[in-house]
C-alpha cells in the first residue's frame, strides 16, 4: 500500500492513520498529550475550477513545501486529500501549538504566485488534542474535521479546538455542514425535488411548485427550514438553486409532451438574484433542458423586493422579456405593497397561508383575501391561495374567485413519478 501522496510528496491518508495509531499508543503509555491539526484551504475549489488543475496543483505543492519546511522538525505533515492537510504534532512540541496556528494563519494572508497570477487562499483549522479516552485514530481525525468545520463557520482564516463537552447541537450542525458540502461535491447526493400541485377551482392540475428535500447518509430527513438557511450561510444556495432549476425544468419538459400548458413554479433566493450572470445561467439551463420559458414561473418574496427593489425590477423585466413569469410568494406578511407589485410587473400573487388558515375565525383574514383577490384581478393578474387544508377554506377560495389553490387538502408534495402518474390518469 502506497504511503506517499504523489503530487506533494507528503504522507497520505494511510500513512497518517498508521502514524496516528502509533502516536496514540505512545502517548497513552507515556502519559503525554499531543495535537492534530486538520487544515482546509478555503475557496481552493474556486481557483481549481476557474483556472484549472495546473494552477491548483502548483498551490498545493507550494503549500505542502511550506508545511514541511516550517513544521517538519516538530511534526509529521500529511496531505489528507484534495485541499485538506494534517499536521501531527510531536508530544515534545505541544507548547508550540499556538505558534504553529498563528504561523499558518499568517501565511494564509500572503498570496500564492502561480505563473503571472496571484491567488489568496485562507485556511480553516480544526485542532484536537489526544489521547481522548477510548478514541481511536479514526475518531481523532473525525473530531479534528468537526472542529475544522466549526472554524469555517466562524469565518475564513480561523481555527477551533474540538472539545468532547461541546454543545451537541453545535457538533450536529458542524456535521450537517460537512455533509452538505460533501453532498454538493458528489452530485447533490441525498437531495431530491418533490412537487406540490397547483389546481384550478375545478381541481384540474395546472402546475406544480418544486420543493427541495434532503436526506442525510444516516437516513435522517433535514427540514428545508433548517438546510435552506444553512445553504445561504455557507454560500451554497446558488448551486443548490441551480440544481432545483435543472431538475424542475427537466421534469416540466417531460410533462409538457402531453400537457403543453403545465408549468413548474420555482423559488428563487436573493443570493441567486444577486449573481451578475443569473439571467445567462437561467437561460443556459432552460436551453439545456429544452423547456419553454413560458412554462416556468419564478417565485420571489416580499423580502427580496425590499432588499433591492431596483435589482429585482431589472431582472424581473428581463426574465419576463424571455417569457418567464414572476410570482410574488407569501404576499401579505412582508413590507411590500400593491404599488411595488405593479412596478415589478408581477404575473401572479400567492397569498400567504396565514390568511386562509384563519378564515373561519377571523373576519379580517376573510376581508383581506377578498380585497386582494379583487384588486389583483383588476390589474389583470392571477391570484393563488396557499395553505388550503380544510373544505371550508377551499370553498372560500372558490367563492373569492381565486385562479389557483395549493395546500395539503388538495395535494401534498409528491415525488415526480407519483405526480406523473396522476397527470396521466
TrEMBL record:
Organismal lineage: Bacteria, Pseudomonadati, Pseudomonadota, Betaproteobacteria, Burkholderiales
NCBIfam families: GGDEF
Any GO molecular function: cyclic-guanylate-specific phosphodiesterase activity
Domain EAL: 173-425
InterPro entries: Cyclic-di-GMP_PDE-like (IPR050706), EAL_dom (IPR001633), EAL_sf (IPR035919), GGDEF_dom (IPR000160), Nucleotide_cyclase (IPR029787), Rev_trsase/Diguanyl_cyclase (IPR043128)
Matching Pfam families: EAL, GGDEF
Protein name: Bifunctional diguanylate cyclase/phosphodiesterase
Taxonomic source organism: Oxalobacter vibrioformis
Domain GGDEF positions: 32-164
Entry-linked CDD domains: EAL, GGDEF
Amino acid at each position: 500500500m502506497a504511503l506517499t501522496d504523489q503530487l506533494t510528496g507528503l504522507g497520505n491518508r494511510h500513512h497518517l492513520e498508521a502514524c496516528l495509531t502509533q502516536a496514540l499508543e505512545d502517548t497513552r503509555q507515556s502519559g503525554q498529550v499531543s495535537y492534530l491539526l486538520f487544515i482546509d484551504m478555503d475557496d481552493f475549489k474556486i481557483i481549481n475550477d476557474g483556472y484549472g488543475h495546473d494552477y491548483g496543483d502548483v498551490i498545493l505543492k507550494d503549500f505542502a513545501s511550506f508545511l514541511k519546511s516550517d513544521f517538519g522538525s516538530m511534526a509529521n505533515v500529511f496531505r489528507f486529500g484534495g485541499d485538506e492537510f494534517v499536521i501531527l504534532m510531536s508530544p515534545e512540541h505541544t507548547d508550540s501549538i499556538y505558534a504553529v496556528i498563528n504561523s499558518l494563519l499568517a501565511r494564509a494572508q500572503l498570496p500564492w504566485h502561480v505563473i503571472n497570477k496571484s491567488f489568496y487562499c485562507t485556511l480553516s483549522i480544526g485542532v484536537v488534542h489526544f489521547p481522548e479516552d477510548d478514541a481511536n485514530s479514526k475518531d481523532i481525525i473525525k473530531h479534528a474535521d468537526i472542529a475544522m468545520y466549526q472554524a469555517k463557520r466562524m469565518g475564513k482564516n480561523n481555527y477551533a479546538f474540538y472539545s468532547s463537552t461541546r454543545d451537541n447541537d453545535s457538533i450536529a450542525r458542524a456535521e450537517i455542514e460537512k455533509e452538505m458540502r460533501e453532498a454538493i461535491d458528489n452530485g447533490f447526493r441525498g437531495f431530491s425535488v418533490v412537487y406540490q400541485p397547483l389546481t384550478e377551482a375545478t381541481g384540474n392540475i395546472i402546475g406544480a411548485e418544486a420543493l427541495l428535500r434532503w436526506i442525510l447518509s444516516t437516513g435522517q430527513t433535514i427540514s428545508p427550514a433548517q438546510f435552506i438557511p444553512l445553504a445561504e450561510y455557507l454560500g451554497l444556495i446558488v448551486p443548490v438553486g441551480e440544481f432545483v432549476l435543472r431538475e424542475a425544468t427537466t421534469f416540466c419538459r417531460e410533462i409538457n409532451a402531453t400537457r403543453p400548458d403545465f408549468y413548474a413554479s420555482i423559488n428563487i433566493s436573493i443570493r441567486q438574484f444577486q449573481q451578475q450572470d443569473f439571467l445567462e445561467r437561467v437561460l443556459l439551463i432552460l436551453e439545456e433542458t429544452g423547456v419553454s420559458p413560458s412554462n416556468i414561473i419564478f417565485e420571489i418574496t416580499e423580502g427580496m423586493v425590499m432588499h433591492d427593489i431596483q435589482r429585482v425590477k431589472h431582472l424581473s423585466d428581463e426574465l419576463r422579456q424571455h417569457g418567464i413569469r414572476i410570482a410574488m410568494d407569501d404576499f401579505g406578511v412582508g413590507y411590500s405593497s400593491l404599488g411595488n407589485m405593479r412596478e415589478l410587473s408581477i404575473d401572479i400573487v400567492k397569498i400567504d397561508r396565514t390568511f386562509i388558515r384563519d378564515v373561519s375565525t377571523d373576519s379580517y383574514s376573510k376581508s383581506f383575501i377578498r380585497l386582494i383577490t379583487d384588486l389583483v384581478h383588476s390589474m389583470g393578474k392571477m391570484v393563488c391561495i396557499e395553505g388550503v387544508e380544510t373544505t371550508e377554506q377551499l370553498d372560500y377560495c372558490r367563492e373569492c374567485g381565486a385562479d389557483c389553490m395549493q395546500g395539503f387538502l388538495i395535494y401534498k408534495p409528491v415525488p415526480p413519478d407519483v405526480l406523473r402518474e396522476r397527470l396521466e390518469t
